[in-house]
Design goal:
The structure is a homodimer. By secondary structure, chain A is mainly α. Chain A contains 14 helices and three strands. Chain A folds into three domains: about 55 residues, Orthogonal Bundle (Multidrug-efflux Transporter Regulator, Chain: A, Domain 2); about 100 residues; about 90 residues, Globin-like (Orthogonal Bundle), CATH 1.10.490. The longest helix of chain A is centred in the middle third of the chain and has 33 residues. About 10% of the residues of chain A have low confidence. Chain A binds a DNA duplex through helix 2.
DNA sequence: ATACACCTTGACGCAACGTCAAGGTCAACA
DNA sequence: TGTTGACCTTGACGTTGCGTCAAGGTGTAT
């Protein structure tokens, strides 16, 4: 089943402009384009769009959503479970707000006194949550990499040994990266080795490989704090190395 | 009890920048400024801020909130009741979303099939609601002017006869306005009379009068559809008349 | 062949702030 | 009395997530 942009817009309630915008920022690209350049979306794109909307409902920024969805550890089922928890939290929050409102009404009628703090109960908590969400710490910490990775591996049809290779490669990558980074030259031979390893590592989860996506991903490692810290401050080095690697094919 | 901007920010969870912004757009001005220009907020300002936050939670734009709060017919108690209803609606919406999420999870586990429409149930309804809210039709229609006006009058300490004068003046204003508008000249003598009447009319509800607020208000009559229609297409004329009136003191 | 609804890519606009920058204020403490 | 340090001020430019044209290509139906 394929859909034009108008059909997707009508189906999802998202405007055409928004869909184009999502493509521009690399968040949701149609599965293909017609001969004359028309966008053609597929079922997978609808699933992705739904994900985007759920996250947006939780007030995540598009760039944050992007990094979540492009993360090799992304697993739809864990994501849905997490979204459920967060949406429930949001609903509870709304309930607190309604309580505050009720109190304010009572105060108005002279049936109750309110302190200044009480007047803003239900608004403030939100801010803390938003911050936590922005950096997605909760999302990450709640499921150790292990679970999500395994789920993902299964979905990609890896067997136990392939999975072990995958994780081993991931660890080795981290090692080699910090070694190479110490030398400081992202064009060095060892840096190129790291870049090649990274590409191989992505191969385990990335059905099809594209240099552009690879470039974007490592750029994201730099932009997104979570990745940056996962790569222990070597995200920039990794980016430069991979870019240089890809430049020289 | 008075508060500096920092205290208000801490109390409410709103940033200082946002508070300054609210002042800039004429939404929330501190009750006074200290000798050295420091913003000093009072209890009334906190109540107003709470109102703003409730409306923001409902995704109303600042300009819409402004017109609601500056409306001579604004009544806190009706507003709170209405907010309660809308927030409850929003919570129900969240529940629908959670249902969709649950269905998607089940689909993932192969326990259920989903149509494309179902996948976006709970998102789309939102759009319609947002539109209705934007123009605040519900908010207005739910309480005829009568109720709110009476409540407001009571709060301002008007007695029955003052209230009658107030409403009579309001009606006469509409009449004279449309008469004057027919002539087309907003600087005419009859236009100036209308402007003076409008000022007098505001006097009933405005505690203290300020020319700037008056200018803003009539500008809003033009910008906001609801007022524009209340003044039967003569909002622009009224604005020009009042501005000219104020220019010539 | 022309009408019509659809699509494309710019490019500018806008709301609601975030984020400096440059400088004034004020209570406290040496 | 001078000097921190925390607070405040007013610009002014930046960012996000689109909305809203504008100018033009596409596709099918009559």
């Amino acid at each position: 089943m394929e859909y034009t942009i108008k059909q997707v817009a009508k189906l999802s309630g998202v405007t055409q402009r928004a869909l184009r915008h999502y493509e521009q920022v690399g968040l949701l690209s149609p599965r293909r384009k017609s001969g004359s350049g028309y966008r053609i979306y597929g079922k997978e794109d609808l699933v992705r769009l739904q994900q985007i909307l759920f996250y947006r409902e939780l007030n995540l920024g598009l760039s944050t959503i992007k990094s979540i969805c492009l993360d090799p550890d992304f697993d739809l089922e864990s994501a849905l479970t997490e979204q459920k928890r967060l949406l429930q939290e949001k609903r509870d929050q709304l309930d607190r707000l309604l309580l505050t409102l009720e109190h304010t009404l009572q105060e108005r009628k002279g049936e109750r006194m309110m302190t200044d703090q009480e007047r803003f109960e239900g608004f403030k908590r939100q801010l803390v949550e938003e911050n936590e969400k922005q950096y997605g710490k909760e999302v990450r910490e709640r499921y150790g990499k292990e679970t999500a990775q395994r789920a993902n591996a299964q979905m990609m049809g890896m067997d136990e040994s392939a999975y072990n290779e995958f994780t081993a490669l991931g660890e080795k990558l981290l090692e080699k990266l910090s070694e190479a980074a110490k030398l400081g030259d992202p064009t060095s031979v060892s840096a190129m080795e790291v870049a090649r390893m990274h590409k191989r590592w992505l191969g385990y989860t990335w059905g099809e490989y594209s240099a552009e996506a690879h470039r974007n991903l490592v750029q994201m490692y730099v932009d997104d704090e979570r990745f940056a810290s996962y790569y222990q401050g070597n995200a920039e080095f990794l980016r430069d190395a991979v870019h240089h690697f890809l430049d020289n094919n």
